[in-house]
Structure formats: structure tokens, C-alpha cells
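Input:
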Amino acid sequence: MSIRIVLATLAALVAGPAFAHVTLETQTAAVGSTYKAVARVPHGCKGAATIKVRVQIPEGVIAVKPMPKAGWTLETVKGPYAKAYDYYGTPVSDGVREVVWSGGRLLDEHYDEFVFRAFLTTDLKPDTTLHVPVVQECEGGGVERWIEIPAAGKSADDYKFPAPGLKLTPKK
Amino acid sequence: MAALHRLALVLTALLFAAFAASGSALAHAALNGASPADGSVLPAAPSEMTLSFSEPVSPLALRLIAPDGTATPLDQVQLRDRTLVIAAPAGLSPGTHVISWRVVSADGHPVGGSVLFSIGAPSPTAPIAETQPSGVRPMLWAGRVALYLGLFIGCGGAAFVAWVAPLPARARGAVSAALLLGLVALPLSLAAQGLDALGGDLGAVFQPPVWRAALGTSLASMLAIAAGALASGLLALRLTGCLGQIAGLCGVGLVGLALASSGHASAASPQALMRPAVFLHAASIALWAGALLPLIQALRRGDAAATLRGFSSRIPAIVAVLLGSGLVLAVVQVERPAALIETSYGRVLLAKLALVALVLGLAGFNRWRLTAQVETGRLVAGRVLGRIVAVELVLMLAIVGTASLWRFTPPPRALAIAAAQPATIHIHTLTAMADVTLTPGRAGPVHVAVMLMNGEFGPLPAKELTLSFANPAAGIEAIERRAVRGADGLWRIDALSLPVPGRWSVELAILISDFEMLRLTDTVEIRP
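Output:
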């Protein structure tokens, strides 16, 4: 038993920060740039296969172009932004607020990625974390909501279902 | 071999962890299933328990918490693929058990949770422990016994002497003694009550706060009325004729009033029924028990015919009132037959009823066999009757002694009310508030009701509400339950069992919209 605990602890040390959960592949990006978001879905909901992935586009992220996926139906939900953002000199006041991939079947033992491209406006604050909430719906009605945004002084590790995050850096 | 197998698994886990560090995505393990299933009720104890995870895991701490709150480490564990197979300890008792698990998943993150299952049926209420400072209990009991003897034997005896059996002054000594004993019991009872109220021990008996505390309780007015009853009794023994009879009757009436003014039964509702019932019960006890001493005196002197006739003609009505009022009191106080055996109050009642049955048997024998013989002048029968009445008196004392034990046993009715009190918490944050009510607020099965409000006391529209309860001090990892919203807007959880008392942490995960979640946390005290 004790050797197992030692090894498990060692494993914990090697693993370092959590790579668990639904996460983004690229976890740093500069504001005022185009970002390719790859949402990684490592498992289903308590063993059930994933049939729908919904991504909420945070405020300040515009010009969203999701990548179609074979075997999945791609939809977007459009709506007004809180304010007009500058997109290479053009004010943009509405666009995609949510991206939905549905109709596929990703088994618990398989892994997949869901991709979209977006522009990170300069209204986003550098040196903060941008959270991209993702909802994973599964067969049998199971839902995993990767939507928890850490409160001040807490980190994603303190939560069971942290929203995927992205560290923002100053404009290049 | 098994150890090697395990080592291999752990090494695999390490390898995965290394991959994790290098950037590949791995997940925390989640519990996919358990046997016994969470919340299940089994007819018999399981021989093994399994926990199936979504990822390979290593156990860190596995514990089984028994219905009585004791935790047993589970160390007979085997890993089969992603399933932990745990040998169940032998001799599991019926009731609710908790498997509290903590494992480390492939990504190196410890995760934990709890699985509850019950054998036979979910655990019933744990008994309520009582504490009392030493020495005060005997004093309370002795005071109560002495007071009852004064009231029943003394006041009842005085009334019997005044109305039925005019004894010569010498023969009244025993009744007077009982009355005086009752007077002595007054300050004794008051002091014991004060010590009990303040939780002090006998040494503190002369301190003024003890007496002030006692005077503030309902016992003080009871003792005042009892003093009046005892004084009336003494007066009835002194006065003759009509005045003596009035004083005697007053004494018995005051006995009824005294007992009806304080105590478990008088405090029970419906008061309009209970207080008169206590009054009649006490007065009829006094009339019956009080007759016994003068009867013995009369039988000893050999001219008991008139006294016996007077007693025999009155006693059936008195016993009928006694039993009728006693039945009413018992039904209200005990509530359900099982409480007769399960609670100490019920057991005292059973003991008392057994003694009463004995007394009634003797009384019946006296009345139907011996009384007629004594009336026709058979001296032998008179002596036998005198002895049996003396035995009756002793049994009466035993009944009084038994009934005085009720001072220490809250009736099942009161126990049920106390146990049913809910535990409540109010969580208040800037964005959301929650009123959580756990009914009853004691260990065992509970119903949970949650009212959600926004920061301005308005309604908080939520899509889902999940509560998790954990007791880190008892080693119980979070027990998660989804609440269901009722038509009245309250969120409820019906199938939850908090197996041990103590301080539980409560976390509410409120889903505001598909992408927005609020978490509120607090702690709640769960009684035994």
C-alpha cells in the first residue's frame, strides 16, 4: 500500500499542473491577434459517449469561424456583443456567441478535438486568463459543464469543472 | 503476483503522468459506478464492494463508516482494470454505511467521494444521550418521591380520615408523618431543581443563584400549590366535622392542581385535555393511596366494618377515574406502542403498569373475597386483609418511586419533537442567497429543502441545483445529490442520509444558465 502511495505522489509531482478536463491546446495568446482554439475532449460523461459539444464565446472574442467536423453537425448562435469592437478598423457589434457541434458520437475511450478560429480584440486585458466555457452533453442525458471560472485568489485546480483557460499576453 | 500487477499498473499510471506533463491531455478519474449502488438498500451485507472509475486509479484512502459512526479502513483492495474490488469487512451491522473513497487518478490529482448504502433499512435515530451532574439526580428523585408520598399518602389520608374513617388522634400519626415528609420535600425539590437547571453539583446548594434559578421554573409554582395541599391536609387532621371535611377535600383538590401545573404531561398539548387528565389522575391516586394507611389502622383496631364499607363503596369510581385518566396521559405521551419498549420513558411506564396491575389484583382479592368476611365479623379475615393492604401500600410506594423516575425521561412525544427539529443554514453572498433546511436535523435519513434568492431577496432562476455534503472530520468525502425543483419553487432532495452527527460542510452548485454556475458553501451542525 505504502509504495503505491509514494508512487502515486511521485506521479502527482511529475504531472505538475492539471491537464485534466476539457482544455485548450494553445494556452497563451496575444491580444489583437487571431487565435486558433482547439478544445480537447478527453473523455465522456461518467463513461457515456459525448454527443454534443457547446462552446460559449466570451465577450471580447469576435470574428469566430468554427471548423466543420466530419460526422458532426455544426451550428452557431449569433447575437449582439456588449459593445462594438474594432476589427482591423471596422466596428463589429454582433456575431457568433456560441458554437455547437452535435449529432456525432465520441466514445468515452476515444479522444477528439473541436476547433474554431477567432480574433482576440485589444479590449481584452493582457496578463489575465480568458475563460472559454464548454458544455459537453452525452448519451443518456449526462452533462459535464466545464464552466467554472475561478474566483479571485483561486486557481482552476480548486474546481471540479473548470472552464478551459487561455493566458493573454500584450499585443505584439 | 498481485503486488507485481499493481506495480505495473502504477508504472503505467506514471508513464501516463509523464505524458500529461509533456502536454497530452488526461483527465481526472470519475466514479462511473459502484456496487452496492449509491443510495441502495440491500437485504443482507455485501461480501465485496466495487468502485469503477473512468481512468486507472490508485487508492489513497478507503474507509467504511458504520451506522454508529465508527470508521474502518478498507485495506483488502484489488485493482481489476479500472475497478477497485474491496472485500467487505465481516459482520456489518444493519443500517446506513458509507464507503468514503479517495484515489489518485492518472493525472496525479487526488479525487474523492462517498457511496452510501444501507443494509436492511436506512439507519434510525441514534439515542439521545443525557448528561446530569452527579449527586443531583438522586436528590431530584428523592425529593420527588418524598413529595408524592406527602401529597398522596398524606393529603389523601387526611381526606379519608375526615370523610370516611374518623380515627382517634393517636392513630393519625402516620398520616401526619407523611404530610410532614411532604413539607420537608419542598425545599429539597426546589434545591435539586436549581442545581439541575444550572448544572451545578451538590456543593453549590447554598448559593443564591441556584435558588433563583429554581424559582424561575414551573416547579416553583407547583411546589407552592403542593405546600397549600399539605397545609390543608394537616388542617383536616386537626379540625373536626364539616370544616375538616372541607379542608380534606381542598387538600386533594390542590394535589391535583399541583401536579397539573408542572411536568411533562401538563406541558403536552392538547392542554385542555392533558391538564384535567393530570388533575383527575393525581386526585384519584391521592384518594386511593391515602385510604390505605387509615384502613390499616382501622383493621388493626378490629372495628373496621364501617371504614371498609365506606372505602369499598367509593373505590370503584376512583379506580375508574384513575385508569381512564392514566390511559389518556399514556396515549398522548407515548404516541406509538413501539416507544413503550424503545424509550426509557416507555420502560418506566411498563414497570409502573406492572406494579399497578399487581395492586389492582390484590385490591380485587380484598374486595371480593375478604371484605364481606370482615364485615360479618371474622377476625382472621381482618388480619389477613390488614396485611394485604399493607402490601398494597408498599406497592404504592414502589409505584411512586417508579413514577418519580419520569423526572429524568422525556416522553416519546417530546423526544419525537426534539428529534424532528430541522437544521437550517442561511448562505448570503452578493449575488445569491440560499436557505437550506434539513429535516430532521439529526444523523440518518434527511429531507433537504432549499430556497434560492438573488442578492436582493428576489427569485433566483436556476436551471439545476446540486448539493454536496462532506464531513472531513469523520473522514467522509462529498456525498452529491441533485435537487429537484417543486411546484412551490423550493428545491428538494428526498433520498439523502447523513450517517454521522457533527459538522458537515455543504456546497451548493447553482446552474444559472448553461454556461454559468454559482457555488455557495457553508457548514451545518447535525445532531446525534
